[in-house]
Specification:
Beta-lactamase; 368 residues; 14 strands; three-stranded antiparallel β-sheet; nine-stranded antiparallel β-sheet; 2 domains; 11 helices; alpha+beta; 17% strand; single chain
């Protein structure tokens, strides 16, 4: 069994052993995990396979799915920080076509915090061109009975096309290039991308891990998203790739940025507005449970499925279903966890249990 790392700190041995037992039953799956506290990295480790016959390592590049959304949100919030746009601006002031269907009062804050009210759509972004799906999204009507800014429902696909379009209109560049220049470069995220351009794909293809997921009937893998064609798709709702080490570095930098330290490209007051929910926890129309949303992040992670119950109300993060990716930071304790479990997260109890074990292990370590 490959544990992917020569050393697991003693506090994390329980996590290692639990993942190893699951991997013995599911040898085709793999996991990659990074954890830190107060900016000190405690763990960069892996278990199992990245793809058939290839060991998962800390250098393997994972498909983030929806867990990559905060990266794009941070690029737009940087525009807020620079005075190019405001959270309270109507989106239609910047994208006039968005006013269609009664959405003229929807604000940038509403879009980022899943309170905008255009959840439902036709077609699929993986089957339509970026331009065609964006045009469809801009023309969507407001959901019946929805009050923007007051109701909440996770916008899995639609909102992120609007975020991408706002970034492109404000910066004058493809959102993928904007993310590389304005977020990845200043934070040193050398293994993080929004989509993989052909030249990048050729350079990292040997590091790519095929995401896996347990479904009724067994383990399902998603090899298309790590093919040359699949990886270059322009899909702002989930086409992101990174190591868990890089994803943890993003959250470590955000924690430091909240304190006015480090190189996070957003000022502390604006960053605090991003990670903090504009509304009290409420029932989410899409997910059917009570939770809070920040402006680009999930907030109060203990209320969100998969994270476990250790996180404080001030915590923030995101998750992705395909590949079972969970990442977050907790200002109350300084804990950062970024983990991609794939099919090793065999069920809800397992993933929440492992995340809680990781959190407890991070607390047990004494950073120098």
């Amino acid at each position: 069994m490959n544990d992917g790392s020569p050393q697991w700190p003693e506090a994390f041995h329980g996590v290692r052993d639990r993942l190893s037992r699951i991997h013995a039953r599911l040898p085709m799956a793999g996991a990659q995990i990074s954890a830190s506290r107060h900016g000190t990295r405690l763990l960069d480790a892996s278990v199992g396979e990245a793809r058939p016959g290839v060991a998962m390592t800390a250098d393997s590049v994972l498909y983030l799915s929806c867990a990559g959304k905060p990266l794009l949100a941070a690029v737009l919030v940087r525009c807020v920080d620079e005075g190019m746009i405001r959270f309270d601006d109507a989106v239609a002031d910047h994208l006039p076509a968005f006013a269609a269907g009664g959405k003229e009062a929807v604000t940038v804050s509403d879009v980022l915090s899943h309170a905008a009210g255009f959840v439902s759509f036709k077609g699929h972004p993986a089957h339509d061109s970026y331009e065609d799906f964006l045009a469809h999204v801009l023309g969507l009507p407001l959901e019946p009975g929805w009050t923007p800014g007051e109701d909440q429902g996770y916008h899995q696909e639609t909102a992120w096309y609007v975020v991408a379009a706002l970034v492109e209109s404000l910066i004058g560049a493809d959102y993928r290039a904007a993310l590389a220049r304005h977020l990845c470069a200043p934070l040193g995220l050398s293994s993080t991308w929004a989509g993989l351009a052909p030249e990048t794909y050729d350079a990292v293809r040997h590091r790519l891990a095929v995401p896996t997921l347990v479904r009724p009937g067994g383990v399902r893998s998603f090899p298309y998203v790590v093919t040359r064609i699949g990886a270059r798709a322009k899909i702002p709702s989930y086409a992101y790739y990174a190591t868990m080490g890089d994803l943890a570095r993003f959250y470590e930098a955000a924690l430091a940025g909240l304190q006015g330290a480090g190189s996070f490209p957003i000022a502390p007051v604006t960053l605090n507005a991003m990670v903090s929910p504009p509304r009290a926890p409420m029932r989410d129309r899409t997910w059917g449970y009570t939770c809070a949303m920040g402006r680009g992040f999930l907030s109060g992670l203990a209320r969100h499925y998969g994270f476990g119950d250790m996180w404080s109300d001030s915590s923030f993060g995101s998750s992705g279903k395909v590949g079972q990716v969970f990442a977050g930071a907790d200002p109350a304790t300084g804990v950062v966890i970024a983990a991609a479990f794939g099919a090793l997260a065999v069920d809800q109890a397992t993933k929440t249990g492992i995340m809680s074990e990781l959190y407890e292990a991070a607390l047990a370590c004494d950073p120098p």
